[in-house]
Amino acid sequence: MRTYLDFEKPVAEIETKIEELQALAEASGADAISQGQELGRLKTKAENQLATIYSKLDPWQKTQVARHQDRPRFRDYVAALVTEFVELSGDRKYGEDAAILGGLGKFLGRPVLVIGHEKGRTTADRLKHNFGMARPEGYRKAVRLMDLAEKFSLPVVSFVDTAGAYPGIGAEERGQAEAIARSTERCLTLGVPMVAVITGEGGSGGAIAIASANKVLMLEHSIYSVISPEGAASILWKDSARAKDAATAMKITAQDLAELNVIDAIIPEPVGGAHREPSAAIATVGARVAEALDTLSGKSPDELRVQRRDRFFAIGRMETEAAPNA
Q1: pTM for this structure?
Q2: How do the pLDDT tens digits run along the chain, 326 residues long?
Q3: Spatial distance between the Cα atoms of 99 and 133, rounded to a whole number of angstroms
Q4: How many Å apart are CA 324 and CA 132, to the nearest integer?
Q5: Spatial CA neighbour of 72 closest among 274, 317, 216
Q6: Which residues contact 56 (CB under 8 A, 6 or more apart)?
Q7: Which among 143, 131, 147 is positioned nearest to 98, based on CA atoms?
Q8: Burial category of 56 from C-beta neighbours within 10 Å (exposed 0-12, middle 13-18, buried 19 and up)
Q9: Quick one: which of 128, 117, 12 has its CA closest to 66?
C-alpha cells in the first residue's frame, strides 16, 4: 500500500476512487468503454493534482518527502547501478557498523568504491542499521575504504541519507567527533575523484563526513543542514513543534543550497517524489553521477585536491566592490 503524506490527501482521495472503480469494474463486468473513460479522467486529474502540489512544496514539506519511508535507500542504488558488488565490513579497530555500508563494484560499468548510509526499510532493518545514524566505527570503516580507493586508483561515490551521527554514550566514549573529523579529512585529501549524492536527509557532521567531495549532487526534494529542523527549533525557541519555522529559516532545500553554492547540481525527481517512482529516480541519479565522474576523470591527484579545496573555501564567500579611490 502506498503511504501518503499529509499534504498529499487530495491525491490520495482521487487514487482511492480509482482503485474502487477498478475493483467495481472487475466485479460487475460493467461497460469497459465508459469505465475506461472515467478511469482515464481520474488518473489525469490525480497526475495534475500531484504536479501542482509538488511544484510549490515548502521547506517543511520537502523535509517530509526527504524522510519518506519508501524513498530509495543505499542498497536500492547499489542493486540497480553497481554490478559485481563486494561489500567490505569492519573498521579493523573496534567492529562493524551497519549504518554505513560500502564496497567495491562497477558503477554502470566503471570500477568504483561506493559508500553510503543505510536507514533500512522494515522495522528489523531499521534497528539493524540504526536508522542510518553511524557510530565511530562506521566512519572509521569509511576511512579504511577510502584508503583502499586511493591505493587502487578507484573513484569514490557516496550516497548520503542520515539524520546525523549517533549521539549515544558509547559512541561518544569511542571518539565520535574524532572519527567524523578523520572521515571528513580523508574525503578532502583523496587523490582520486569523489562524487557525493544527498539522496534523502543530509544531517550535520554525520553527512559531511562522507560528503566532502569534488562534486556534491542533491536530489530535488532532499534536505541538507547542520542540524535537523526539530533540533534547531528546540535550541532557538525551546519548542520542537516549531520545526516548520526552523526549516524555512535554515535554507535546507536543494534550491536554496544551489543558490548558496553549497551543492553543485540538483537532480530532478519524478513528479510526486523519488518514492513514487524509485526506478526512474535511481536511473536519473546514475546518469548524473556518471556525468560528474566524467568531468573529473583525467585530473591528477593534486588537481583533484586543489579543486576540492577551492570548492569548499568558496562556500559563503562574499564578493565586495573595490573601494573607490580617495
Answers
A1: 0.89
A2: 778 888 988 888 888 888 877 777 666 655 555 566 778 788 888 889 889 999 999 999 999 999 999 999 999 999 999 999 999 999 999 999 999 999 999 999 999 999 999 999 999 999 999 999 999 999 999 999 999 999 999 999 999 999 999 999 999 999 999 999 999 999 999 999 999 999 999 988 999 999 999 999 999 999 999 988 998 999 999 988 899 999 999 999 999 999 888 999 999 999 999 999 999 999 999 999 999 999 999 999 999 999 999 999 888 775 554 445 54
A3: 6
A4: 53
A5: 274
A6: none
A7: 131
A8: exposed
A9: 117
In angstroms, the Cα distances linking 277 to 63, 188, 207, 280 are 18, 34, 25, 6
Q: CA-to-CA distance for 132 and 166, rounded, in angstroms?
A: 9
CA distance 131 to 73: 11
Q: Cα(58)–Cα(114) distance, rounded to whole angstroms?
A: 32
Contacts (Cβ under 8 Å, ≥6 apart) of 231: 240
Q: Which of 193, 215, 197 is nearest to 298 (CA)?
A: 193
Distance CA 97, CA 299 (A): 33
67 within 8 A of 247, measured Cβ to Cβ: no
Q: CA-to-CA distance for 16 and 8, rounded, in angstroms? A: 12
Nearest to 288 by CA among 212, 191, 215, 235: 215
Residue count (the chain): 326
